[in-house]
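re: ur question from yesterday

yeah so i grabbed the chain u mentioned. its 145 aa long if i counted rite. heres the sequnce exactly as i have it in my notes:
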Amino acid sequence: MDLTVVAYIVYLLISVALTVWVARTLSRNGKIFLADVLHGNEKLADAVNHLLVVGFYLVNFGFVALYLSQDDAVLDARALFEALSVKLGVVLLVLGVMHLGNVYVLNKIRRRGVMEREQIPPVPPQGWTAPARGPWAPPAPGAGA
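ran it thru and got these structure tokens back, copy pasting raw so excuse formatting
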């Protein structure tokens, strides 16, 4: 078996394992975060979490597949390690960027939810107070001028 094929196999095994590990970690820890963002709606949090994980898998596995090809033949062990280090380094960077993107989007959703909760008064209004009249306001109807 040619060393280029060995490089492909090792690259695929490590890339798939890393992608699955990161996705499971994000899913497990993101579920709690999503439940908070979605005001405790566990079913909706699970559904959104599952959709995010599926999208994460699709993007990362698609990238891993597209980045599989090797321009130069791998002739010795040194070239094998160099090719793997470059390919795996790029995959790790893509996984990191995807993770940061997910965290950024979820944080934006969470902030919006917090802002919406802060706009609701803690106690319903009890009555209405008329605005005060200042020296700049016209005289009240029926008042002498």
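noticed a couple things. DSSP finds three helices and no strands in the chain. also Residues 89 and 95 are 10 Å apart (CA to CA).
anyway ttyl
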